[in-house]
Specification:
By secondary structure, this protein is mainly alpha-helical. The protein contains 5 helices and 3 strands. Keywords: Coiled coil.
Length: about 120
Amino acid sequence: MNLKNELQTIHNKLDVANRKLNAAHERGDVDVVKQFNKTIEALSKKRDSVKAQLNKQLNQQGKELSTLPFSRVLTKQEQADMGKLKKSVKGLVVVHPMTKLGREMGIKEVTGFASKEF
């Protein structure tokens, strides 16, 4: 399963467990409260692990892009016709500053990374 999908599934399970925990508190059911506390703790650990894996992948992807020999800011015309640009430059990777990768790399403008000059 994709890590993003797995993280979403864990969040959904945590949400359900929290709602059931609140209902058990209202009923005063001590055994069920203990069970859901254990479940929430286990899901929280798993969530943290998956988040760490995602962050590691993001860092690795950013390092790979920054090691490419050529990068430059894309003009508005190039951004408008991105399909033509990507067809003309093989292996071009475009990073937008508002994506996770762009924020991680500290990019301020839309930037293209490639193995050769474009």
